[in-house]
Amino acid sequence: MSVNQISVFVENRPGSLLGMTSVLAEAGIDMRAFSLAETTDFGIARLLVDDVIGTSTVLKDAGYIASLTPVLAVEMPDVPGGLNRVLQTLADSGINVDYTYAFTGKRPGAYMVLRVADHARAAAALAGKGIRQLAQEDLSDL
Amino acid sequence: MPMERYYQPEIETAPREQIQALQDERLVKQVRHVWEHVPYYRKLMEEKGVTPDDIRSTADLHKLPFISKHDLRECYPYGMLAVPLKDCVRIHSTSGTTGKRVIAFYTQHDIDLWDDCCARAIVAAGGTDEDVCQVSYGYGLFTGGAGLNGGSHKVGCLTVPISSGNTERQIMFLMDLKATILCCTPSYAAYLGESMKEMGLTPDQIPLKAGIFGAEAWSEEMRQSIQETLGIKAYDIYGLTETSGPGVAFECSAQNGMHVNEDHFIPEIIDPETGEVLPDGVEGELVFTALDKEAFPLLRYRTRDICVLSHEKCPCGRTHVKMCKPRGRTDDMLIIRGVNVFPSQIETVLLNLGYPANYQIIVDRVNNTDTLDVQVEMTPEMFTDSLSEITQRQRQLVDGLRSMLGLTAKVTLVAPKTITRSEGKAVRVIDRRKI
C-alpha cells in the first residue's frame, strides 16, 4: 500500500516557494503533508494531496516540473518509541530510508512518510509488525 | 587496413601542381564573374584599387577585399547574387541566430558541386551504394539535411531523409532499416547514443558503422564518446550556408583534420586583427573563396571560425589541404582566468550529458578572480524526487566542464523557462566583469 507524493523542483531564492504555494492556493488545493529538501541553489518540495492528478496538472500548467513518486505513509501512535518501532522494523529487514517527514491529521497520532529503496519489501515488513499504512484514498479522511 | 576509397579519385588525389593550376584558372574566371555581376563587391574592389586584371593567379588572392557577415546583411537578400534569379533553382538560409538571416542562392551547377562535395565525405567515411544512410540533420532552409541528402544520392546509398528530432522514431528507423551511416549534429549523435544505451542497446547491436557529424563545434572527447556508445567511426564535416553548406571540408580515415575541397574552395588563415595571411600551422581566422559557384560566389569570406591549416601529407592519399576542427567563432570566445573558453564547448558538455541546450553562461570577477557560472534549466527527464541523484548529476556536469575547459565552473540548476528565449539565438553569455 502506498500514497503518491508529488515532488516539485523549486529554485532556492526568495519567493520561489511562494510562487508554487500561490498556484496551489488559487486552485483551492489543500495539502495533507509538505516537506522541503534543499541545496544551495535549488530544492525539492514534496507534498501529499487528495487529488494527485489534478494537482500535478495545475502545477505543470503553471510551468513547474513535478513528478510522482510512490511513498509509504505509516500511522504511528503518539507515544515515545513510535517512530523507533517503524525504523527498527525497516532496519531489521535491511531496508535503507532515503528520506522521511511527518504529518498529522485530525485524529490523535502522527503519520510518517517514508521513501525507501525497496518499496514492496518495506511494506510487507511493516505489515508483518501490524504497522498500519495509508492508501491514497485514506488521505481525504485524515 | 582496408583500401582507401574516393568518390572522385582523379581530383581528390591530384598532384598539388594540378590543383594549383585549376585554382589559378578558376579564380581568375571567378573574380571576373563577380566583378561583372555583383556591384557590391565590385565597389569593395574599387575602394581597394583592385581590378580583375590584378588577379592573375591564387598568389594574387591576398589583394582582394574580404567579405564579412556584415556585408551579407547589408546586401540582403539579392546583393550578392551573381546570376539572374531565373537561373537559380533553390535557396537555403542561415538560422539568423546572430542577426538577420543570410540567404544563399544556388544554380543547378552549384547544387551539383555541393552534392559532389558531400558525396566525397560519405565515401571517405566508408560509404558505398550498399549503405543505408540516415540523414538526421534538419531538412528545409538549413543546409545540413539537403547537403548530405544530395551526397548520399550521388553515392547511391539508400537515403533515409528522416530529418532531425523525434528520437524514438529515429531509433526505430535506424534499427529496422539497419542504417549503416548516420548524418547529424554531433550533439544529436551523442543524444541518440545515450538514448539507445538507456534502451539497453549495445554497440554491437547497433548496425551503424560510421557517422558524419558537423554544423557545430565538437571536441575530440566527444568523438571518442560517440564512437564508443554507437560502435562507429565518427567523422567531422565542415561547411557554412554562405559557402554552400556542409562538405566544404570533410574528414578521411586518418580522422585528424578535414580535407578542404580545394578544387571548389580556397581556404586562408588570417590574423583577425590585421587581415594578414598566416602560414600553415598558425592559428587564425578561416577565410574561404568559392572558386566555381555561380549564384552566390563569395570571395574571401571571413568565417570567424578559428582554425589551423596543414599541407602535411595525409596517409589517406588525398592531396587537398587539411583544416583542424574549428575552435569556435572569434566573436564568441571568452577568456576566463587566462583560458580561452568557447560557449560551444560548454554546450557540448551539456548536450553530451543529456541536458537541453537551454543554458546561460555568467562570467563575473570576484576578488580579482574570474568566476564561471553555468546555469542550466531543469527538465522533467532530469528531475527525480531524490536530492542526491540530482546533485550527483550536477557534479558530473562540473567534472565534464572541468575536463573540457580546464576550469572549475559552478553549475546552477534553474527552473524551466527561466532562461530568456529570444526569436533568434538566445543570449548565451552574460559577462559582468568590469575590465
Task: Explain what this protein looks like in three dimensions.
The complex is a heterodimer of chains A (142) and B (435). Chain A has helices spanning 16-26, 52-61, 82-92, 119-128; strands at residues 3-11, 31-38, 42-49, 66-76, 97-104, 110-116. In chain A, a hairpin with a 5-residue loop joins strand 5 and strand 6. The longest helix of chain A is centred in the first third of the chain and has 11 residues, at 16-26. Chain A has 142 residues and is an alpha+beta fold. Chain A is globular and about 40 Å long. Helix content of chain A is 30%, strand content 36%. By secondary structure, chain B is an alpha/beta fold. Chain B folds into two domains: 1-330, ANL, N-terminal domain (Rossmann fold), CATH 3.40.50; 333-431, GMP Synthetase, Chain A, domain 3 (2-Layer Sandwich). Chain B has helices spanning 9-12, 16-37, 39-47, 69-74, 108-124, 143-155, 167-176, 186-198, 220-230, 343-352, 387-405, and strands spanning 88-93, 103-107, 132-135, 158-160, 181-184, 210-214, 233-240, 245-251, 258-260, 265-270, 284-290, 301-307, 309-310, 322-323, 334-336, 339-341, 359-366, 369-377, 410-414, 429-431. In chain B, the strands form five sheets. Chain B has a nine-stranded mixed sheet with strand order 4-3-5-6-7-8-9-14-13. Chain B has a four-stranded mixed sheet with strand order 19-18-17-20. In chain B, helix 2 (16-37) packs across helix 3 and helix 5 (108-124) crosses helix 6. Chain B starts with 8 loop residues before the first helix and ends with a strand. The model of chain B is unreliable at 422-426 (pLDDT under 50). The interface between A and B is medium-sized, with 20 and 18 residues.
